[in-house]
Structure formats: structure tokens, C-alpha cells
Amino acid sequence: MKFKKHVYCYDESEYEIPFFDVDSMNIMWHGHYVKYLELARCAFLERINYTYDVMRKNGYGWPIVQLNLKYIRPALFRQKICVQLQLVEYESCARFDYTIIDIATGERLTQGSTTQMAVDINTRETQFQTPLSFRKAVESYIAFQPR
Predict the structure, then answer these.
(1) What would the pLDDT profile of 4-32 be if each residue is shown by its tens digit?
(2) Which of 24, 39, 112, 145 is the right S-S partner for 69, CB 3.0 to 4.6 Å?
(3) What homologous superfamily is domain 9-140 in, according to CATH?
């Protein structure tokens, strides 16, 4: 039996693929997809008022501890894309699932996920429960969906 994951927050960000992200075939280089996940995650963190500056002020770094990508179709020069972000875990870590779609056709281009763990900046100790400041920011987001 497969259980459906719970989505606590959903967000979308739109981008156009610039020339400097593509190769000679006008296809976006595979390593640049990670940048668009980061851009979408930063946009979401802005919306919940928990930016990297706020993290640092609260005494935590949030390194990526896992990254997964599945390339379905290539993104092309000048293509307009939408990065759909889902926060699927926030109490023990920050786990985001992403789908990159072509805005014009709705076709899925890429799927991925990232997991971040809070680390105390002073002691360098991994926090196995996310800091209260992050949990409060997530739970106060207008589109938060509790279980």
C-alpha cells in the first residue's frame, strides 16, 4: 500500500531560461537545474519571512544533505518555466519536492527534491528537530496546510 505524502505548503516561481544557462544546442546544461530549485526555494523562504539572513540571525545554517533530480525533457533557451515547490517535511528537516514545467505547454521537464538539515552555527551540531523559529514561520504562512 502506497501512502500519499502530505504537502504542508505549495508555491510557484516563474523564470525564463537565459542564454548563459544553455549549451551550443540551446539546451540548458544539467547542472543549472539545481540553481532554479534554489531560486524557487529562496522565493518561498522570502514569502514565509525566513530567509538565509534570518536563519543565520537565529544561529543556524541549513546545508543541503540530499538532492535528487529526474530529467524528463530538456529546458531550452528562452523557454518560460514554472518551478512548482512543495514543502513535504518541516519538523525534522526541510524537505522540498519540485516539478519544473513548461509554461506554454504544461509539460513536465524535471522533477526533484532537496533535503536540508539545520546545523548550529557555533557548535556545528546537526539539529534533528528543526528550530522553533523555522516551524513557526512555516505554520504562519497563509497557505500552510496542517495535517
Answers:
(1) 789 999 999 999 999 999 999 999 999 99
(2) 112
(3) Hotdog Thioesterase (3.10.129.10)
